[in-house]
Amino acid sequence: MMDAREVANRVKALQGSITKSEPADILSQIETLKKEVVPTEEILRTTKAGILMGKLRQNANKDIARAATEVVAKWKKSIEQEKAMKKGKASASPVPKPASPAPKPAGTKKKFEGDPEKRKFTADGVDVKRTGSSVRDNCIGLIYNGLAYRSTESVDSVLQRAIEVEHAAFKAFNGETKEYKEKIRSLFQNLKVKSNADLGKGVMSGEIIAEKFVHMSSQELMSAEMRKQNALLEAENMKKAQVPMAEKSMSESLECGKCKKRMVAYTQAQTRSADEPMTTFCECMNCRHRWKFS
């Protein structure tokens, strides 16, 4: 179940969906809060989840209003039970815990106890058929494999996050497009990097919400150590790129942005990692203006 920080992140994501007027995402976020939050007065007050859900009961969209009303009723009942237990009434008349919206297999919230390096959705016995599309379901499985790798989080928690990430990518890249598939593969590959364990932990904890995760650049997805190494490589190659003018080439197509003359000398160098484009260093021979581009 979510802690206060996770609830706050979910509330923020829900507010974003409300601002963008996206009913499907609003309903999805409400359903997640309904399933995952065991409310206390403290959590609802500090995260403002109760206030936001109360406002949504008056939403013009009947589905959203109904879903929010159900959540408020469930939370209210849970808070009342909490108060009753504090007053000692539970001993006289035990209060049952709120029923889950949908039954789940026993033990799905239990921490994983096998070999975390061999985790896959097939090995964990997870059914990833959730969307009716084989492409999307396979992508859910791929993200599950990335998040589960070297993790002891429960099967249910990993699956929930994988579904959220796939849904965010599907929406961000307009369906089952080439960009959508490439992003899913990129996320999976970064999650599988052993030295980048903090990335998966951030997604699982809710610190990196799905909507942010699918928009992170290749640089942002890297581990802190890899970013440091790339910065050192770029600095080193930048120095090597500053060759004497005699070794530079003249271009008839490049134009100086300052004096507009086509008297530009240039040289190129690989200033970043091998899969990044070359950097071109230019100098105008008329006004000595210098610039670079990739």
UniProtKB/TrEMBL annotation:
Superkingdom as given in the UniProt entry: Eukaryota
Protein role: Necessary for efficient RNA polymerase II transcription elongation past template-encoded arresting sites.
Gene3D superfamilies: 2.20.25.10, Conserved domain common to transcription factors TFIIS, elongin A, CRSP70, Transcription elongation factor S-II, central domain
PROSITE patterns, A to Z: TFIIS_CENTRAL, TFIIS_N, ZF_TFIIS_1, ZF_TFIIS_2
Single GO MF descriptor: RNA polymerase II transcription regulatory region sequence-specific DNA binding
Protein's UniProt name: Transcription elongation factor
Keywords attached to this entry: DNA-binding, Metal-binding, Nucleus, Transcription, Transcription regulation, Zinc, Zinc-finger
Similarity comment text for this entry: Belongs to the TFS-II family.
TFIIS-type domain ranges (all copies): 252-292
UniProt record, GO biological process: regulation of mRNA 3'-end processing; transcription antitermination; transcription elongation by RNA polymerase I; transcription elongation by RNA polymerase II
InterPro entries: TF_IIS-typ, TFIIS/CRSP70_N_sub, TFIIS/LEDGF_dom_sf, TFIIS_cen_dom, TFIIS_cen_dom_sf, TFIIS_N, TFSII, Znf_TFIIS
Domain TFIIS central: 135-249
PANTHER family, sorted: IP08861P-RELATED (PTHR11477:SF0), TRANSCRIPTION FACTOR S-II ZINC FINGER DOMAIN-CONTAINING PROTEIN (PTHR11477)
Region feature (Disordered): 83-118
SMART domains: TFS2M (SM00510), TFS2N (SM00509), ZnF_C2C2 (SM00440)
Cell compartments where the protein resides: Nucleus
One term under GO cellular component: nucleus
NCBIfam families: TFSII (TIGR01385)
Family annotation (CDD domains): Zn-ribbon_TFIIS
Domain TFIIS N-terminal positions: 5-82
